[in-house]
Design goal:
Elements (H helix, E strand, L loop, with lengths): L4 H4 L2 H5 L6 H4 L30 H11 L6 E4 L1 H13 L6 E4 L6 H8 L3 E4 L10 H7 L4 E7 L11 H10 L3 E5 L21 E6 L12 E5 L1 H10 L7 H12 L1 H22 L5 E4 L6 E6 L2 H10 L5 E2 L9 E5 L3 H13 L3
Helix pairs in contact: 4-10, 5-6, 11-13
This protein binds pyridoxal-5'-phosphate (PLP).
The site of pyridoxal-5'-phosphate has 13 residues, from helix 5.
Length: 348
């Protein structure tokens, strides 16, 4: 392997002098100080101060739960922001390219378009696994990023570990593994392999299993060197105070989150067994996530009929390899019951 991080960083990022915020320049060691350095309104209301730009308390809590060191962690305004930071640190517009593997999460393509970076698409196999050979063939000297979404949205499967390993070992750019759904998987993710693979970046999120999509909080795990580079370009106060407080409070109740995840996984299995009985459902794809991809006789029709019954699922039938497929999020037991009732009514 020929991985050299310095060769991947954009020159402007290498050379820039990062903004130094007031909160970066002086931090209290716990002693009560008078802060007259940031032009804040001095009258305390709980939110009159700028938030901690490094989110230390929150990172400590996440570190305990995810077993990843604070120095190998970057937080942002949703996964959306941390993914965008990766583009901006490593991809030169109009010159570099990235590889993504449809059918997959739509943001990789959107972000490449926003950043004016070519997005090379290499289809997953019919089993929804990465086609290692075709991927390595698509790589050239300007390929900076490879996006692996595992468990993959919308197919729901985790990628075969041997294939991922092969890509980590053969690709000299950065491998970004999007683990937004990892908490619903029985398979361990890649967060304990950061020290093995210097080219590995993992993203996770508070939006799915953690039940906090509304606060917009994304996590990125990578080597200290990569984190250092991303910290140079991150907006200083990208995770606001309300989000930091609410995230910490949510994590104090981590046992509740784990219980919900177990319930959702049980409901996923129940839903899967019931859906397979329907005569117009041809296939339920195995899922490590909190949704099921199912193949039906006529996805557009079934989608509209469900809407008529007040139930909104995601029609993925226009995605490659997803002809006549619907993606269904696992809801509460009651919601799933209503979904099954509606589906049964469509049989007659
Ligand atoms: C839902 C989802 C996310 C979450 O994005 P946020 O910006 O953190 O809400 C990330 N990746 C994938 C594949 C997703 O499906």
């Amino acid at each position: 392997m020929n991985f050299d991080l310095n060769n991947l960083v954009r020159d402007n990022v290498k050379n820039l002098l990062p903004y130094s915020s007031a909160r970066d320049e002086y931090k209290t060691d716990g002693e009560a100080m008078i802060f007259l350095d940031a032009n804040e309104n001095p009258y305390e209301n709980g939110l009159n101060r700028y938030p901690d730009p490094q989110q230390i308390l929150l990172k400590s809590k996440i570190s305990e739960i995810k077993q990843v060191s604070k120095k190998q962690m970057l937080l942002g305004n949703g996964s959306d922001e941390v993914l965008d930071l990766i583009f901006r640190a490593f991809c030169e517009p109009e010159t570099d390219n990235v590889i993504s593997l449809p059918p997959t999460y739509g943001m990789y393509k959107v972000l490449s378009e926003i950043n004016n970076v070519e997005n090379r698409e290499v289809l997953l196999t019919s089993e929804f696994e990465p086609d290692v050979e075709a991927i390595l063939e698509a790589v050239d000297a300007n390929t900076k990023l490879l996006f692996l979404c595992s468990p993959n949205n919308p197919s729901g499967n985790s990628f075969n570990a041997e294939l991922v390993k092969k890509l980590l070992e053969s690709f000299n750019g950065l491998v970004v593994i999007d683990e937004a759904y990892i908490d619903f998987s029985d398979i361990a993710g890649w967060s304990q392999s950061l020290d093995t693979y210097p080219n590995l970046i993992i993203t996770q999120t508070f939006s799915k299993a953690f039940g906090m999509a509304g606060i917009r909080l994304g996590m990125l795990f990578a080597s200290k060197k990569i984190i250092k580079i991303l910290n140079r370009i991150k907006p200083p106060y990208n995770v606001n105070e309300l989000t930091q407080q609410r995230a910490l409070r949510g994590l104090q109740n981590y046992s509740e989150i784990k219980k919900q995840v177990i319930d959702i996984k049980n409901e996923r299995e129940r839903l899967s067994k019931a859906l397979v009985q329907l005569k117009y459902v041809f296939k339920i794809y195995p899922s490590d996530a909190n949704f099921l991809l199912i193949k039906v006789d006529d996805a557009d029709q079934k989608y509209m009929e469900l809407i008529g019954k007040g139930i909104v699922v995601r029609n993925r039938s226009k995605q490659p390899l997803c002809e006549n497929c619907l993606r269904i999020t696992v809801g509460t037991a009651l919601e799933n019951q209503n979904l099954l009732k509606a589906f049964k009514e469509l049989e007659s």
